[in-house]
Every structure is written in C-alpha cells, then in structure tokens.
Design goal:
Chain lengths: ~260, ~200
C-alpha cells in the first residue's frame, strides 16, 4: 500500500491531539520528542519499549556522565567555521551567517565546547555516497563545519542556505531546509544532536521529523530568527539561533565557570 | 523564538533533540575515532559488538560515542581526539600518547563496531564502566547506556545502578569477556534482551 502525505498528516494530527489531551489531563510540558513516534517510520523498530532507568546525579558527583570530553584548538582548523572557504572555488547558493549562544539550563554560557554542523548543499544534496537524490553535487561544498564556543558561549558559521530535499518515507515527502548540529556541554548528560530550521518554511506541517516535537513552543525553539544585524553587507544573510542544553550537570563545579 | 533571554530564567528552556539522520557519515566520524588508547598501552582493552533493532536486524547507520576514565579512575582533560591537519583540513588521528577518554565510531554495513580504549578504573562506589551514547537514524533522542566489564563480582554487586536491576536486565550492561582483553558488548534497541538505557536527573 502506498503511504501518502495525507496518511502521515492524519497520524501527525492524532499524535498532536494525544499530547494536547495529556496536557489537559495535567501532564507535563514535553520539551523533547518521544522516541516512539510512528509518523516517522524509522522510529518504530528503533525505540526501546522499556522505560529508561533513572539515575539521580545528586547522589554521586563522581559519575562519569557528569563530566565531558575536552576539545581544543588542535581539534579544529581556522576555516572550519566557514563552509564557503573549504574548496578552491565558491559554492553555489545564498551565503548565510548563523550565530548564537550555547547555554545550559541555568542560562549560563557553555564555553570552549565543540559545535559541529553538517548540511545539504543549496540544491538539497548531501556530499554523502549513499545519498542518491537527483540534484547536483557542488564540487566547492562539502557541508561540514566545526567550531569551539567562545568565552560567551557563542558560535558563528558562514555557509550557504541549504535546500529542502525529498526522502522516501512516503510519496512526496520533503524535508524542510535544515542544518544538523552536534553539541557538547560541560557534562556528557548534556550531549545534544539536533537540527536548526529557517523561519516560515512552508514544509513544517508536512514533516514528521520536526512534528515529532509535539509541543508548539518547543518546536519553535528549533527555528532560527532572521537577524539583520548578523547579515554581512554585500555578503550574507544573518540567522540567530541560541541553543539550550538539557540534562543535569555537576552543581559543585559552578565556581570558576 | 530562538533568541533566549537569560535574564528571564523561565525562558531558558531546552532545545529539542532530533535524529542524527542517515547522512552524517561525511561529517561526524573521524580517523582514529575508535583508537582511544595510547599506542601500546598495557591496559588497552578492545570492546566490540553489534547494534540491532526490534527485529534483530543490525543497524548499518548507528553512531556510538564512548566516554570513560583512565585505569586509575580519573577522567581525562586532554583534548586532541580529532587532531586536524591545518594544511589539508583532514584528520591527523590521535597523538598516540595522550588519553582523551572519548571516541566516536560508526557501525559498519553489518551493524558492528569496535573500539580500543583503556580499561576504566572505578570511581566512588561505582563498578568500573564506560559511558555509551547511541545515535541513529530513527532515534529521535540519543540513548545512554553503560558498558561494565566482568571480573570483579563484588564490585559489580555493589554498584548502585546494577544492584537495582533484575538479573536479566542487569546482564545487558555487562560485557562478555572473550580473552586477551577483548570484550563483547551488543546493544539491542528494542525487544528481547533490550539493553538497559539510562536517563539522568
Ligand atoms: Fe538532513
């Protein structure tokens, strides 16, 4: 049986209604997607059925997970945060500047940590061998960037606007344009891999991956804001995206952070 | 929206997680990601295994991160896991001397992965373990688990996490010794023998 966008739309609506009902019944705001989210079919066989076992970190400040690996200047190169300069020529597409602050749940900047991004090119094609979308590769664009956050927890990338791309989960499935982000905090419990979207993308309602975040306000936190002050004259459009890492950390190391 | 006002604590809410997707292979894995132990270190162990889904099918696109202490139980503070070559932009590999404690490995086409790292030491009341973080297409939020090493039954029995688990579930967290410092640790995301996954609060 052919799976249509209409089928997926109905499943998304049902999941959203179920969440609204949980909220109305006094359930908590769900900031994170549920791992079991059938409108995104790949989740069906890949989510645990048993609830996770909870570890109360306040009972043990020595836990391995309350510390994070370290990254430094030798883990990046000077042009890693400029995806338009990694080849001999200029990539095709609208240049953009993406910047923001990496924060913990207390609003404190996360300093000196690794931010990694990857994305499709302006035609919506990844430089990945297994990606067979019939859109042109760009010999001047790999779509991978890295940087370390500065003393204010800030990061900044120069890249090109990624294109939306089709995927084959259902007929006419398209992913809204996005940039993948991988982030480290001060504790391994704060590890985050996510995706940043662009304002007012018409594909949002159709995409089960962004809709897996069923809370409307939480979903909005995945969408960058156009920021004219970040736009570089004669060069690029600016987008601002702050990131807040979830997960507990060791409270006793607050001094000197 | 996504400009967070840190002067208003109620506005500092978590950024939701998303799947790593299928197309991270040209971005996240790096040369030497699995070779965490300094070259020739006598406390080197090999940990390897398979990642499978709810039907027992191996995942050819899972990404594993390992993080653990040195044999004395100290957590490394050295950077340099993914040293770079400023000339080519490529990866140099680790320096072979320092121990960063962290590694990243993509499963191969048969769903298998391996890592060579240092035998972790105990910290506090915990039996020695490696922290494991699993990412994959289809996984909307990554999963944490732990690889405990067999051998010291008393330490394992006293471990606060293991002590609270039923035997069958507990066993999913303890690697199988295969001799010569090699241990097998399979990760089953769902169903029979489902690995114990953790959340931290
Ligand atoms: Fe993508």
């Amino acid at each position: 049986m052919t799976l249509t966008q209409h089928d997926i739309d109905q499943e998304i609506a049902a999941k959203h209604a179920a969440y609204e009902k949980r909220l109305a019944d006094g359930g908590p705001v769900e900031h994170q997607p549920r791992r079991d989210y059938a409108p995104y079919r790949s989740s069906v066989l890949r989510h645990p059925k048993q609830p996770p076992v909870t570890i109360d970190v306040s009972k043990d400040p020595e836990l391995v997970e309350l510390f994070s690996p370290a990254f430094g200047e030798r883990d990046i190169t000077e042009i890693d945060n400029d995806l338009t300069r990694q080849h001999a020529g200029e990539p095709i597409g609208e240049r953009i500047t993406v910047s923001g602050q990496l924060l913990d749940r207390d609003g404190r900047p996360v300093r000196g940590q690794l931010v990694e991004i990857w994305q499709a090119n302006s035609a919506g094609r990844y430089a990945h061998r297994r990606e067979q979308h019939d859109a042109p590769l760009d010999p001047n664009f790999t779509g991978v960037g890295r940087t370390l956050t500065d003393d204010d927890g800030r990061y900044r990338f120069t890249t090109v606007q990624p294109g939306p791309y089709p995927w084959r989960q259902h007929v006419n499935a398209w992913r809204p344009a996005h940039i993948h982000f991988s982030l480290f905090g001060t504790a391994f419990t704060q590890r985050l891999v996510t995706q940043m979207y662009f304002p007012s993308d018409p594909l949002f309602p159709y995409d089960p991956i962004i809709q897996s975040v069923t809370d409307d306000a939480a979903r909005q936190r995945l969408v960058a804001t156009y920021d004219h002050s970040l736009s570089v004259p004669e060069f690029s459009m600016g987008y601002h995206w702050d990131i807040v890492l979830d997960g507990p950390q060791a409270t006793w190391i607050e001094e000197g952070r | 929206m996504t400009r967070i006002d840190t002067s208003r604590p109620d506005s500092v809410l978590p950024t939701p997680s998303h799947t790593v997707g299928p197309f991270y292979g040209h971005a996240l894995p790096f040369r030497g990601g699995e070779d965490i132990a300094p070259v020739g270190h006598p406390d080197t162990i090999t940990v390897h295994g398979c990642v499978t889904d709810g039907e027992g099918t191996p995942l050819p696109d899972a990404l594993i991160e390992l993080w653990g202490p040195d044999p004395d139980g100290n957590l490394p503070t050295a950077d340099g896991s993914m040293r770079r070559d400023p000339a080519s932009g490529g990866f140099l590999g680790r320096d072979g001397v320092e121990f960063t404690g962290w590694g990243r490995i993509q499963t191969d086409a048969s769903g298998r992965w391996y890592a060579r790292t240092l035998r972790p030491g105990a910290r506090g009341r915990n039996a020695p373990y490696l922290s494991v973080c699993v990412f994959a297409r289809g996984l909307l939020v990554h999963l944490y688990t732990r690889t405990y090493l067999p051998g010291d039954a008393a330490a394992l029995a006293a471990d606060p996490l293991l002590a609270g688990l039923a035997d069958a579930r507990r066993d999913t967290l303890i690697a199988a010794a295969e001799g010569d410092g090699t241990y097998r640790f399979d990760i089953r995301l769902q169903g029979e023998g489902e690995t114990v996954f953790l959340e931290f609060q």
